[in-house]
Specification:
Bound molecules: 5'-O-[(S)-[(2-aminobenzoyl)oxy](hydroxy)phosphoryl]adenosine
CATH class of the largest domain: Alpha Beta
Number of helices: 16
Strand order of the largest sheet: 4-3-12-11-13-14-15-16-17
Oligomer: single chain
Radius of gyration: 23 Å
Largest sheet: 9 strands, mixed
CATH architecture of the largest domain: 3-Layer(aba) Sandwich
CATH superfamily of the largest domain: ANL, N-terminal domain
Distance between the termini: 50 Å
Number of domains: 3
Helix content: 25-40%
Number of strands: 28
Structural class: alpha/beta
């Protein structure tokens, strides 16, 4: 437990009236004797100690102020998994600046929209993303710097910085989440939210301590990765492993054998790919005390095969960008494969029917949650906020049912949104891309389960000239999507039909295609 911050028997956090969340996550480790301890290790052989981290955070905060940013200003950081992600994120927070780290796999129009919507004063980006960011800057001009340029500025900045005090419920950082039809929504998180997730799920459910080495295949830009490999280890004084490469099975095996993590966090699609790769060559998993899965439901069969092959269990849990991290999860001492587990203590849930009344135990309904880690609003989206956040409760958009022992079973979404490899994917976005092809008249995109029982996008297409869809066109359409959209969003199957089911008003009925 951190001095000055405690949680009552009710799991509600008690924080000072005025504080800055960079102090418990970053600054306290040096006075507590962890200055020489490694906070971050990278695949490039960099080790960053807690003392170095604290100093670089101060330099980063000072550099941001030298760039003209003031408390409340937004910093958009399109940054790969590397120590500078920590410096920028915490340096901003310590100076009262609001960091916004979006998905780094997006395309120029998405970034241009975020520059505009966030009204950010500065964009800092890893040079790997230069082509998309440069194109976005032409659409929405903003001041921008590469990470390398920023690190050079930091070298000239002072290593001391006074933390700017705020209230626990003041705005602290944002995370963008994809919307089903419209543009991404910035979920605004408060100062206290990372304290709540790191204690209630990180420390109490996973039992993260300073002895833990945390390796997350899910990147830091994802709220899941942000907790897994940044806030959980920092809260406990543990160590984070960072890799900026794409997490292929080989990359993850190499990291697990090299860094000997105690906790590994993945998504179901990756666990499935790892299992397939393990058939070809065995690997050592002896350092792991637990694995975690989130982003989409983990099929029971993947749990079973993973346990058989590696000897460790995978704790499936459901989290969201709006709630910041996992709110229903399996535990080391209480788990049931094929379910999301039980509510994390401190998180209240309710399952409602169509009329907004609680369902009878065991019946399915819409899942709502209430907790102290949820975003209070979406930036600039009052209607979306009013729809999703009602009287302190958050509508997850998920349908759930409780089994007789209180384990919660995921039954799907209440909207048409898909999770692909654990990341949001809007059918409308893929459809809009497909119809830009001259041969396509209309398209509908739905989710379809693959051989591992994991959902991938499938397109149902109507052509302008009936009957002309062949293998060549299918390949062309998939390539068009890969080129235009974030690459994971392309349709894995394309079916050609004569017409699409529609409502009287002409709206595509995707649910009829799913049946
Ligand atoms: C779905 C799941 C079944 C569900 C996330 C852990 O995924 C995260 O956040 P997102 O905002 O998506 C939230 C939505 O994804 N989902 C996530 N996990 C599961 N469905 N079983 C699961 N285990 O539809 C949910 O509403 O991208 C996950 C921690 C932090 C996160 N942000």
């Amino acid at each position: 437990m951190v001095q000055g911050i405690d949680f009552g028997a009710d799991h509600k956090v008690r924080l000072p009236d005025r504080f800055n969340v960079a102090v418990p996550f970053i600054d306290r480790h040096v006075p507590e004797g962890r200055g020489g301890k490694v906070a971050i290790r990278t695949v490039h052989g960099e080790d960053v100690t807690y003392a170095e981290l604290a100093e670089n955070v101060n330099r980063a905060g000072n550099s941001l102020m030298a760039q003209g940013l003031r408390p409340g200003d937004r910093l958009l950081m399109v940054v790969k998994d590397c120590p500078a992600f920590f410096y920028l994120f915490w340096g901003a927070i310590k100076a009262g600046i609001v960091p916004v780290p979006p998905n780094t796999l997006l395309r120029a129009p998405d970034y241009a929209y975020m520059f505009e919507d966030s009204g950010c004063r500065l964009v800092v980006y890893s040079s790997e993303y230069a082509s998309e960011i440069d194109a976005a800057l032409l659409m929405t001009p903003v001041k921008a710097l590469t990470v390398e340029g920023f690190l050079a500025e930091m070298a000239n900045a002072l290593p001391k910085l006074e933390a700017r005090l705020a209230a626990p419920t003041d705005d602290c950082f944002w995370l963008y989440s994809s919307g089903s039809t419209g543009r991404p929504k910035g979920a605004v998180h408060a100062q206290r939210n990372m304290v709540v997730t790191s204690e209630l799920y990180g420390a109490r459910v996973l039992g993260v301590t300073e002895n833990d080495i945390c390796y997350s295949a899910a990147k830091l830009f994802f709220a899941y990765g942000l907790g897994n490999a940044m806030t959980f280890p920092l809260w406990a004084g543990g160590t984070a492993i960072l890799d900026d490469r794409r997490p292929t099975p080989d990359v993850t095996f190499e990291n697990i054998e090299r860094f000997k993590p105690t906790l590994y966090y993945g998504v179901p699609t990756l666990y499935a790919a790892q299992l397939a790769a393990l058939d070809a060559a065995p690997h050592s998993f002896s350092s792991l005390r637990a694995c975690v899965s989130a982003g989409e439901a983990l099929p029971a069969d993947i749990f079973r095969r993973w346990k058989e092959k590696t000897g460790t269990i995978i704790l499936d849990g459901i989290g969201s960008t709006e709630c910041l991290h996992i709110f229903i999860g399996n535990r080391l001492d209480e788990y049931r494969p094929g379910t999301s587990g039980k509510p994390v203590p401190g998180y209240e849930i309710k399952v409602l029917d169509d009329k907004g009344q609680p369902v009878k135990k065991g019946e399915s309904g819409a899942l709502w949650i209430r907790a102290e880690s949820t975003a209070r609003y979406y930036w600039n989206k009052p209607e979306k906020t009013a729809e999703t956040m009602v009287d302190g409760w958050l509508n997850t958009g998920d349908t759930y049912r409780e089994d007789p022992d209180g384990f919660l079973i995921y039954e799907g979404r209440s909207d048409d949104m898909l999770k692909v490899g654990g990341i949001w994917c809007s059918p409308v976005e893929i459809e809009s891309c497909l119809i830009t092809h001259p041969a396509v008249l209309e398209a509908a995109v739905i989710g379809q389960a693959d051989a591992d029982q994991l959902i991938k996008p499938k397109a149902v297409v109507v052509l302008k000239q009936a009957g002309s869809g062949g293998a060549e066109l299918t390949e062309e359409l998939a390539a068009l999507c890969k080129k235009t959209l974030a690459p994971y969003k392309y349709p894995r199957w394309i079916e050609y039909v004569a017409e699409l089911p529609k409502t009287a008003t002409g709206k595509i009925q995707r649910f009829k295609l799913r049946a």
